[in-house]
Amino acid sequence: MFGKRFYNELKELEEKLLTKKSFIIIPHYNPDGDAIGSALAFYLILKKLNKKVKVISPSEFPSFLDWLPESDKIKVIWNKSQIRKDIFSAAEVLIAVDFNEIKRLGDLSSEFEKSEAFKILIDHHPNPMQFTDLMISAPEYSSTAELVYDVFKNIGLHKFIDVDIATCIYAGIMTDTGSFNYNSSTPNTFRVVADLLEYGVNKDDAYDKTYNSFSVDRMRFMGHVMLNRMVVLPEYKSAYIHISAKDRRDFNEKFGDTENFVNIPLAVKGIRFTAIFIERDNFIKISFRSKGNFDVNKFASNHFNGGGHKNAAGGESFTSLQESVELFVKLLEQYKIELLYE
Ligand SMILES: [Mn+2]
Questions:
Q1: What are phi and psi of 57, to 5 degrees?
Q2: What is the fold of 7-211?
Q3: pTM
């Protein structure tokens, strides 16, 4: 709960939610469980208030989330040609969830910027840019979904929460904390989860549907990657994975298949920093993970045009896969003292 914090923001948010009639909720590009769970929770609660509401996602969401209540109602932008100038014009209010800068909307950024609707951001990423009229940003939260729960509670909307809404919020928290393995060291996370269980969330079912839903191709792809594409550098307490476009073709990669690969090397004893480099159509997509004090948000923004959280961040490179990896390994030398002793 917030106490006096966000007092003015919450008052204004409440006023908008109660008086405005039409809303569009927008997660970030390549939405994850937190973005989709938070968006659907907002969608469902606004439905209960009899509002006109839509979720518009700037890109496809991973199929392991398609069990979430009402996820089939999400309007997914598959390619640029679907982005009409009036895409947001039906809404009086735009609610952005789980990102901290407008460029994370991808091709939807400029339409978002141009829209005259009232804009709200609810997010937990550090150092948000100012691109909305109203912002509720709380970086100490495990997930946007946990924050959404407290927002509902603080403005009296919790009386509308049902098992579907609670399940969407739960899924957001579960996925953004790797099932309570990271990002979840505040008691508030568990208080919120306790409340959600009271609403009837089936946590085992949520876990099973989210994490035990891989294709055989994906399992074999993971085996190949761990055996042949993971490089462990104990001298830097680091490891990295490199995946070429050919690897992706050979294993019939589907959207979302490489999700979580980056976390696996952290399970090797002594490893505290990992990276994955994936050759996409015209760039190298990079993710970073760390344990403890090593700040991958800074590392990603300093060297790979990215950012995120202290222990989980992303970036990109426009050189070749090999050059990207070589730069990474060279940089490790620069960070050696931090990696080994801090
Ligand atoms: Mn998140």
A1: -100, 130
A2: inorganic pyrophosphatase (n-terminal core) (3.90.1640)
A3: 0.87
pLDDT, tens digit, for every residue of 104-148? 999 999 999 999 999 999 999 999 999 999 999 999 999 999 999
Residue 2: per-residue pLDDT: 82
Cα 333 to averaged position of ligand 1 atoms, centre (Å): 31
Pairing of strands 230-233, 238-243: antiparallel
The C-alpha atoms of residue 32 and residue 260 are separated, in whole angstroms, by: 11
Contact 143, 173 (CB under 8 A): yes
> 37 C-alpha vs ligand 1 centroid, how far in Å?
10
Q: Which two tokens stand for residue 43?
A: 């969608």
Q: Ligand 1 centre from 12 Cα, in Å? A: 23
* Range(s) of the chain covered by CATH 3.10.310.30: 219-341
CA of 169 to the centre of ligand 1 (A): 11
Query: Measured in angstroms, how far is the CA atom of residue 250 from the centroid of ligand 1?
Result: 31
Q: What CA–CA distance (Å, rounded) separates 71 from 41?
A: 10
The Cα–Cα gap between 337 and 335 comes to 6
Nearest residue to 288 (alpha-carbon basis) of 305, 270, 307: 307
Give the pLDDT band (50/70/90) at residue 182.
confident
Residue range(s) of every CATH 3.90.1640.10 domain in the chain:
7-211
d(CA 16, CA 118) in angstroms, rounded, equals: 9
Q: Which residues contact 115 (CB under 8 A, 6 or more apart)?
A: 88, 89, 91, 94
Fold that domain 219-341 belongs to in CATH: Diaminopimelate Epimerase; Chain A, domain 1 (3.10.310)
* Centroid of ligand 1 to alpha carbon of 279 (angstroms): 24
- Report how far residue 229's alpha carbon sits from residue 245's, in angstroms, rounded to the nearest whole number: 13
Interior/surface letters 17-28, b for 16+ CB within 10 angstroms, e for the rest: beebeebbbbbb
pLDDT digits (tens, 9 = 90+) for 143-158: 999 999 999 999 999 9
